[in-house]
Design goal:
Radius of gyration: 23 Å
Strand content: under 5%
Number of strands: 2
Number of helices: 15
Strand order of the largest sheet: 1-2
Largest sheet: 2 strands, antiparallel
Structural class: mainly alpha
Length: 318
């Protein structure tokens, strides 16, 4: 729960699917037809794998509805095939510090599966929606963006959410992304607020853990161990920041060797200093406390998501 998933033309990497060729007179008729599986681009059921995860199913249903909405407004929008299920995030297994030496020796920080900048650029270049948008005249491209994402939050009518850490985020409540969200989740504003808060519980939990005196004392012992091993870092976060800087533009093989060395040192010191078990205990404690504070929002998130999955089943199949 580190990031806020928001579809954005220049940020979401999509694979190629079939073009949308139908244009309907009214948005609602297309949305209803899409739910019946008879309209909208990318709704060919034989292309939908029966083993879609819940996240994949929700994403595909949302993309189908966005495509139907864009088509209703005279634009083409390609629905990508389901994205691969991502590999397990090491941050979920080791939320504060790596403390498994064998895992660190085999995986480093688990960064090898990350997409390179060149790979990302290639996929963006091949995105049919980006190519289509760029082929439009400036005026038509502006209309495309407005239809897809609605007016900017500064124009008014936006959905405003305050995260647990006090940051204010705004989302347009208009446009095809919002319309698709409303059709899928029933109440887009309520869903957006609940999703933003749930997606941002982790920074609140992390801040609570780091503010605990037991974590501070263990981090001091960890830093001393790392210093004796030749790595002067005050805490694991500083190490990762430095790793990101040194890895940029470095030879991949050399960067991976350096990553393994640092990860093994981090894990070794996490065990000897007690930082590993202490951070896990504190993480469990503050996760329970933070979730209790936001129980109503979490329940709303789960209810709307469950309702959306039932609607997605009707759209993309079980």
């Amino acid at each position: 729960m580190h990031a806020i998933p928001r579809p954005a033309l220049d940020a979401v990497v999509k694979a190629v699917s079939g073009p949308c060729r139908r244009h309907a007179a009214h948005l609602m008729s297309l949305l209803v037809a899409a739910f019946l599986g008879v309209a909208g681009c990318g709704t060919s059921h034989p292309q939908v794998r029966p083993s879609l995860s819940a996240d994949q199913k929700l994403e595909r249903a949302e993309q189908i509805l966005i495509s139907a909405c864009m088509s209703a407004h005279g634009f083409r929008y390609w629905v990508p095939p389901p994205a691969p299920v991502p590999a397990p995030d090491p941050a979920r297994r080791f939320p504060h510090v790596i403390d498994d030496v064998a895992w660190a020796r085999a995986n480093g920080y688990g960064r090898t599966a990350e997409m390179s900048g060149d790979e990302h650029a290639r996929l963006v270049r091949n995105d049919p929606n980006l190519r289509y948008a760029r082929s439009l005249s400036p005026g038509r491209r502006g209309a495309y963006e407005l239809t897809l994402r609605g007016p900017p939050p500064s124009a008014g009518g936006s959905i405003t959410v305050r995260t647990p850490r006090g940051y204010t985020l705004r989302t347009s409540g208009k446009g095809c992304i919002a319309a698709a969200g409303a059709r899928l989740y029933g109440d887009f504003a309520t869903w957006d607020r609940a999703q933003v808060i749930v997606d941002n519980l982790w920074p609140e939990i992390s801040a609570e853990v780091r503010a605990d005196r037991a974590y501070g004392a263990a981090t001091g012992r960890w830093a001393g161990c790392m210093r004796r091993a030749g790595h002067a870092y005050a805490n694991p976060d500083r190490l990762r920041d430095d790793l990101d800087r040194t890895a940029a533009g470095a030879d991949p093989a050399a960067a991976h060797r350096a990553e393994i060395t640092l990860a093994v040192a981090e894990a070794t010191c996490a065990r000897s200093s007690g930082l590993g078990p202490i951070s896990r205990r504190l993480d469990a404690k503050y996760t329970a406390e933070v979730e209790a504070r936001f129980r109503g929002t979490i329940d709303t998130f789960r209810r709307l998501r469950a309702d959306a999955l039932r609607r997605a089943d009707a759209l993309v199949g079980p």
